[in-house]
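Protein modeling request. Please complete all fields; requests missing the sequence field cannot be processed.
Requester role: graduate student
Desired output: 3D structure, token encoding
Chains: 1
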Amino acid sequence: MQLAETADAVTLEAGGVELFRYVVQPDVPQLESPHPYMHPLRTTTGELVSLYRPHDHVWHKGISLALPNVDDANFWGGPTYVRDKGYVQLHNNGTQRHDEFTKVHITDGIARIDEQLSWITEQGEHWIDEKRRFGAYLLPEESAWVLTFETALHNRRETPIQFGSPTTEGRPAAGYGGFFWRGPRSFNNGKILAPDTSGEALMGQRAEWLGYVGKHDGIDGAATIVFVDNTANVRHPTQWFVRSEPYACVCPAPFFDEVLDVPADDTLTLRYDFLIGSGSWDPARIGQVVSDRVRGVDALGRS
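Delivered output (303 residues):
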């Protein structure tokens, strides 16, 4: 594997394939709540498994940490769902500002990126200090790789911050917000999988992991992506925001239908593993790889 850093992005390559490009200085309008994102995301054999700035939701960008309801601020992009009014475009689209990388290196076959960010409202108020960490490693015998993501969101205000979703504001089955992935259009109508069930009924349900199988255009093939909720996360096992139509997306959603208060000077930490595998995997294979090859791997240099 090779990591390369520029002024606005970090890329990870393996076997001649760019597995991800992490963009930290996005050139987008304020309405899109500028925030770092990963796109493109690819399998180890080079197939694309992410979508950037689709016309239906221009603020969807590959995979990113995005939150639509942070008190009355929107760090997701676009309009905000307002109780009894529906979606309204407000002057509340905040920015996740990249401040610096504190670590970008590869050790013992694991790529590490540590980053510091500041969350700034559209009015210029600095509400959150974030420490963000990524670890990435290959599972060559599985034709897969794993991205570990951790965020520590520190409330620097003198009052609590409420994290919620459109569902906590009254819109049913719209509990999105968190580490959000948007799949290619060819992934529409893919398979949604979890340990004990499958299908669209998983929207809002709890599970330790959730998988999505989508097909590629242009080739006879598929890819499987899997989110794994860390056992230390608040409200584990998490609820899921997931769709296969009208578009493919997955988001572990800890604030799906219940607001979470983070007190002043306190920190909310969330951690997920994100697996990208070539081919169509079934729940048994996913469960075994999660148990044997993902859980317990110290990709971030800590237990």
